[in-house]
Design brief:
It comes from Synaphobranchus kaupii (Kaup's arrowtooth eel). It holds the Pfam family Asparaginase_2. Keywords: Autocatalytic cleavage, Hydrolase, Protease, Signal. Its EC number is 3.4.19.5, 3.5.1.1. There is one protein chain. The protein is α+β, with helices and mostly antiparallel strands. It has a single domain, classed as (Glycosyl)asparaginase (Glutamine Phosphoribosylpyrophosphate, subunit 1, domain 1). The protein contains 10 helices and 13 strands. A 9-stranded mixed beta sheet has the order 4-3-2-6-5-1-11-12-13. Strands 7-8-9-10 form a 4-stranded antiparallel beta sheet. The two termini are 32 Å apart. The C terminus is likely disordered. Bound molecules: aspartic acid (ASP). The site of aspartic acid (ASP) has 13 residues, from strand 8. Aspartic acid binds next to strand 8.
């Protein structure tokens, strides 16, 4: 009789896994290279944390911190500007083992909002701190404030000015520049976590809070099902609680990919929302899906780096190999 691998063994072979995204929308071909390089570096770094025995929370925070520090993304340095030309950022983390979560919203002058969100989770009895209260908490925790200018790129200022124009459509324009960042991970024990960070929507009203810091909207993680980090039009994501909807479909037995596709289709049908998601389950199944034209993503599993940009695109290369792709797999993931 042929030997059949046990589900436990199959799961062990697929773990750990880490998937990151660098925003959904569409970008001009000439800008693809830095977006792609950034998510690949972040996926490698987060995966290395898992391989060295770090926790899933350590891994997703590491990956998202790197993306916040990279000025090409709309998070940390590089954030889009609000209607007054200021930077207000949102971030969320969630631990699937305990369902602990932490978030900050409309926070200013912080280089790494994802790390502050983690501190909210670990050091307070609350789930989310906002605006000035979040800044006071940061000071109390010894988190150094930075000059707002250091978070603003020339590109962000240029786009802000363009969108002050009365005929501009900031939502449409947002979809022309990707950049919210996020990560999900599962370790060899089947623990899952998520982290998401953003500067929000271009030229948003001061004080606007989007999906990112809201649990179930900006991410969700539960060891019993999986973890999700989304990106896209926050108001649409919130209306259908996209990450929690995906996990609901997974609870009903759907794969990470099928659940993502079904939830994205539902969001489009109900509220015409465009978004993308990265998803893991505790057995190592994963997905990177979008209903926008593009979402920049990268995943690391079994010492292979996967990545893609156009919807349905999927390249892979050995993690130890050269940085330039040496294998191409155009199959739908
Ligand atoms: N979801 C983010 C927000 O609405 C933006 C994005 O992902 O591009 O704040």
């Amino acid at each position: 009789m042929a030997a059949v691998a046990s589900p436990r063994r199959i799961a062990a072979a697929m773990l750990p896994v880490l998937v990151v995204h660098g925003g959904a929308g569409s970008i001009p071909r000439k800008n693809e290279e830095p977006y792609s390089a950034g998510v690949q570096v972040a996926a490698r770094a987060g995966y290395a944390v898992l391989r060295e025995g770090g926790s899933v929370m350590d891994a997703v925070v590491e990956a998202v911190t790197l993306l916040e520090n990279n000025p090409v993304y709309n998070a940390g340095c590089g954030s889009v500007l609000n209607e007054h030309g200021g930077v207000e950022m949102d971030a969320l983390v969630m631990d699937g083992h305990t369902l602990s979560s932490g978030a900050v919203s409309a926070v200013r002058r912080i280089a790494n909002p994802v790390q502050l969100a983690r501190l909210v989770m670990e050091k307070t009895s609350h789930l989310c701190l906002t605006a000035e209260g979040a800044s006071k908490f940061a000071r109390a925790m010894g988190v150094q404030e930075v000059q707002e200018e250091s978070l603003i790129t020339d590109y962000a200022r240029k786009r802000w000015k363009q969108n002050l124009d009365r005929d501009s459509n900031p939502v449409e324009c947002q979809m022309g520049k990707m950049g919210t960042v996020g990560a999900v991970a599962a370790d060899s024990e089947g623990n899952v976590a998520c982290a998401t960070s953003t500067g929000g929507m271009l030229n948003k009203m001061e004080g606007r809070v989007g999906d990112t810091p809201c649990i179930g909207c900006g991410g969700y993680a539960d060891n019993r099902v999986g973890a999700v980090s989304p990106t896209g039009h926050g108001e649409a994501i919130m209306k259908v609680t996209l990450p929690r909807l995906i996990l609901f479909y997974m609870e009903q037995g759907k794969s990470a990919q099928d659940a993502s596709d079904e939830a994205l289709a539902y969001m489009w049908e109900r509220v015409q929302g465009l978004a993308g998601v990265v998803v893991v389950d505790p057995r190592g199944g994963w997905a990177a899906r979008c209903n926008s034209k593009q979402m920049m993503w990268a995943a690391a599993q079994n010492d292979v780096l996967h990545y893609g940009l156009q919807a349905g695109e999927h390249f892979s290369q050995p993690l130890q190999g050269p940085d330039v792709p040496n294998a191409k797999d155009q199959e739908q993931h």
